[in-house]
Amino acid sequence: MQELFYSHLILIPGVAFIISVVVKWIFSILKSWKLDLAVALWSWWMPSAHTAVTVSITTALALKYWIWSDYFAIAMAFTVIIIYDAINVRFEAWLHAKAINKYIWEKRLRESLWHLPSEAFAWAILWMIVAITFFYL
After folding, report:
1. Can you state the angle between helices 49-65 and 70-84, rounded to 10 degrees?
2. What is the pLDDT of residues 77-116, one digit of tens each?
3. How many other β-carbons are positioned within 10 Å of the β-carbon of residue 123?
4. Residues with Cβ within 8 Å of residue 123, at least 6 apart in sequence
5. Which candidate in 26, 52, 61, 91 could, as Cys together with 16 as Cys, close a disulfide (CB 3.0–4.6 Å)?
């Protein structure tokens, strides 16, 4: 099994993506008691599927090619950009949506857009563990 994931690193972020979508869907079912599959694909609720993909592939590349490889450096740059966006840029979009909704007196724009730094960090650790597990499976 290890040879499969070692030879085909793209499977690791694929598994991480599927896990994040399923976990998000389970969380939504527990929260609202509705079987709404669309919730699983929302990009603004944790766990973040885009963070799962980038962190898991970056971890897999670090394990296979080590942290001083060009592959890891490129993946790490994209991972930092993705997580920065999830925390900071979306926070600003949330502030704008909140202000616009306040001035038009109705909630037309979704205000739940961003992730807390603690959430992003905690889930990033989980995706590293997923990547390590499947890499050495």
Report:
1. 160
2. 999 998 888 778 777 777 777 777 777 766 666 556 556 7
3. 21
4. 46, 47, 48, 51, 52, 55
5. 52
Separation between Cα atoms, residue 56 and residue 112, nearest integer Å: 25
Q: Which residues of the chain have pLDDT under 50?
A: none
Query: What's the 3-state SS for 33-57?
Result: CCCCHHHHHCCCCCCCHHHHHHHHH
- CA separation for the pair 15, 137 (Å, rounded): 13
Q: In whole angstroms, how far apart are CA 9 and each of 17, 61, 62, 120, 124?
A: 13, 8, 11, 23, 18
The tokens describing 48, both together, are 């973040």
The domain ranges of the chain are 2-136
